[in-house]
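Retro notes, item 3 of 5
We never archived the inputs for the thymidine-5'-diphosphate complex last cycle. Fixing that now. Sequence and ligand:
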Amino acid sequence: MTILVTGGAGFIGGNFVLDWLAGTDEAVVNVDKLTYAGNLDTLQGLQGDTRHVFVRADIGDRDVIGRLLAEHKPRAVINFAAESHVDRSIHGPGDFIQTNVVGTFNLLESVRAYWNELPADDKATFRFLHVSTDEVYGTLEANDPPFSETNTYEPNSPYSASKAASDHLVRAWHHTYGLPVLTTNCSNNYGPYHFPEKLIPLVILNALNGKPLPIYGDGQQIRDWLYVKDHCSAIRRVLEAGKVGETYNVGGWNEKANLDVVKTICSLLDQLQPRTDGQGYAEQITYVTDRPGHDRRYAIDATKLARELGWKPAETFESGIRKTVEWYLANQDWVKNVTSGAYREWVSTQYGA
Ligand code: NAD
Ligand code: TYD
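Structure as it came back at the time:
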């Protein structure tokens, strides 16, 4: 048997492919466009592994996707591919609409055409799992209950609006055409192979390089952090046992203010690789202009996933963040390769020279 994964050279998709092949012999066809966020270094450990077939392609390319589906006959498609960075979506929303909305539409059409032709048994067991975000629900006030699957969609950024649109398309393809879909809406991930434009890897690397640690606004915005491997185990569980047409919120019950996250990273680095001048890394914290339309708080109620499918995360924030910092310290080669020209260009667009 085979699954087809899109976006498997990115942060979460890459972790998913590595974990999948570490746990089963079922082959993976990995389709990724290799945008600035796609990185084949992440998959280096799979070189020569015949269970992994990598294809550079756009999810919106119906010819290529149709051909791959016909050739490999996957029992499931898991869609990770997306433009994923809120700040980039503010600077240039076009790519987000193209990949997250138009790309998902084209992928759904390719998959529907394939699924329609499957023999009855395969048609019944086929799944299309769409990986989405808690950001589609908008923002919470301090005392609001966390997001549940029944919250209304109130996306505030071009990124979250494009993901919300893709979720709606997936839902409609189920209700109108019967495509057997599953959707997961997960909170902020962190862990190995995270591209250093996002808060946690950016702070680790800036700290080590003696650069400022930029805090948007007052740093009291709250995110609900989940270790990436826990997100991957949740996706595997939903794929295995999720009810067709349902959505599942995924989260780690780890709400933290950004400033606290940054201070935690600083104190871990103080222990693991202290600054040579005797100062703490927290000295490098710098307050910068806030993100426009910055959502104040995200929090996920993952009760449904726990109750119906028995999933729970393996890591606490404390254990996961320590593993993450240790991973970045031990994998400087990966870091060096990822901080390419395109990355440096982004840093000067966002933070100035
Ligand atoms: P990422 O930006 O690290 O990786 C995205 C991958 O998709 C890259 O490898 C990129 O090359 C590929 N890609 C982009 N456009 C493509 C296209 N048109 N065709 C084929 N491949 C394309 O993102 P991530 O953080 O790994 O997120 C993966 C998914 O999980 C996304 O759908 C995102 O919305 C969702 N998600 C992310 C988080 C998070 O905290 N990172 C949380 C919840 C949900
Ligand atoms: P990010 O990792 O971009 O994820 P998202 O915006 O999808 O939640 O940002 C996490 C939080 O950290 C968010 O509230 C924005 C904030 N942030 C900073 O304060 N400084 C930074 O340099 C970055 C990249 C993010």
